[in-house]
Design brief:
Blueprint: H1 3-52, H2 55-80, H3 88-104, H4 110-128, H5 137-157, H6 159-162, E1 168-169, H7 183-206, H8 209-219, H9 221-226, H10 231-257, E2 259-260, H11 267-280, H12 287-305, H13 309-324, H14 328-346
Antiparallel strand pairs: 1-2
Helix pairs in contact: 1-7, 2-7, 2-10, 2-11, 2-12, 3-4, 3-10, 4-10, 7-10, 8-10, 11-12, 11-14, 12-13
Amino acid sequence: MSEPEAKEAKEAKDEKAPQASGRERLTGLLAGRGRWIGIGVLALVALWAPFELVPFRVFQFTMVMVYAVALLGLNLLVGHGGQISLGHGAFFAVGAYGTAIMMDRWDVPYLVTFPLAAALAFAIGLALGVPTTRLRGLYLALVTLAIAIFLVPLLKRFESFTGGSMGLTLEKPTPPGWTGLAEDQWLYYLALAATVLAFVVVHFLLRSRVGRAMHAVRDNETAAEVMGVKPASYKRLAFAWSAMFAGAAGCLYTWTIGFVSPDSFTVNLSITLLAGIVVGGLGSTWGPVLGGLFVMFVPSLSQDINKAAPGVIFGLLIIVVMYVAPTGLAGLAGRAAHSFNKTLRKG
């Protein structure tokens, strides 16, 4: 190539570079604004939904948020902490029964039961989290499964507190008169406020020193220990934080249902929650919400088809999602957004 031709090629390249860079900046700006616009639209829809939906649908979406809070804790443990738990339903039950006993036996105001139930589950999770410092993989899964298994007979044993096999029935929280809200709408907004609070707490937790240490332990335990991180301490802490969110979700469950019984918190609940977070997307921001939608609506819609269908359809959908989207529904959405941004850059 002659010198004039090389000079022309260089000038043409220099002219295209700013255009490409400007296009990339514009794409990034649109993506950032689009994210915030999407969150704003979602917030408006969430606030307006209970006024447009029938009471049963309001109840269903309230339960979606209850499950989302529980899955948020499980995501913290499995997705960000690199551990596995088949006993998450036990901590859900701790929060639910703790709330029911405080409200029914001790007349504790229902709003006060929320932090107390979360604190109780945190304390129990911290104590039972000791095995997580020594076990991993299948062995840890079996230990947490044992916790879920012995919970049901334990709840039936202390009948004076738990109501035994009959459980406990209590009045649902009633809305203050100045709100003008129906009972189902009030419960929906309580669950919405708790869900937003839980997401904010997790957001700041993961960006703190604790969150960075958890990720380091998850990615490479030996390297984390060399850097001065104590894996045992952060594993136990992740277990306790996860239990705390499950306990908070259990409290919301008791408010929403107004009834607790041992048969509501069997091993199936723990397995369902684990399946929900895997389908929603481990380690993702929106995975708990998508998992909550999956856990709530798939069995409900399947029941309309056939009474024997929920288990079959639930299992088949898990297989399909894992085949089509190995990183969960949130990962599938993320890949779609990435493809869209890539198309904009080429355009």
